[in-house]
Amino acid sequence: MEKDERPIKGKQGRQILVVDDEPAVGGAIKMLLEYDGHHVLTVSSGKEALSLPELANFDVIFTDYSMSEMRGDKLAIAIKQRLPGKPVVMITAHADVLKASGNPLTGVDFLVNKPFLLADLREAIVRVLPMMKDNTEEFGLEPRAV
Questions:
Q1: More confident site: 46 or 103
Q2: All structural domains of the chain with their residue ranges
Q3: Which of 7, 38, 107, 111 could bond to 76 as cystine, CB 3.0-4.6 Å?
Q4: What is the CATH T-level fold of the domain 15-127, as seen in this structure?
Q5: What is the 3-class SS of the chain, one letter each residue?
């Protein structure tokens, strides 16, 4: 069964930060999330993300793993040091390898594998935002432990 790619109606948009050093990828993530009504800001580095005075105002932060200046896992650790409860989602082409390595990704709450679909981004948001976990059926997801 194909995942539903229609926009989610009736949901209040979230404030989302996307950190990716590839403008095309960051722009694609932004476009997909805005399609669902979210408010998205993109930045091109971990350093830029950490310098944002409004960092605490984002509901969730999406970051790429492989960035030249600061890898996504290092950014996640820095964010958790400042904002321990802030959800961080990492997007990477190496999700399966990272999961299989047995080394926990400190600070990362959810992994999304590249290439990804809108449904994958939706699942990440539902899984990391506590107030949305009760709404998994509306998003077409099976309830599961996080």
A1: 46
A2: 15-127
A3: 107
A4: Rossmann fold (3.40.50)
A5: CCCCCCCCCCCCCCEEEEECCCHHHHHHHHHHHHHCCCEEEEECCHHHHHCCCCHHHCCEEEEECCCCCCCHHHHHHHHHHHCCCCCEEEEECCHHHHHHCCCCCCCCCEEEECCCCHHHHHHHHHHHCHHHHHHCCCCCCCCCCC
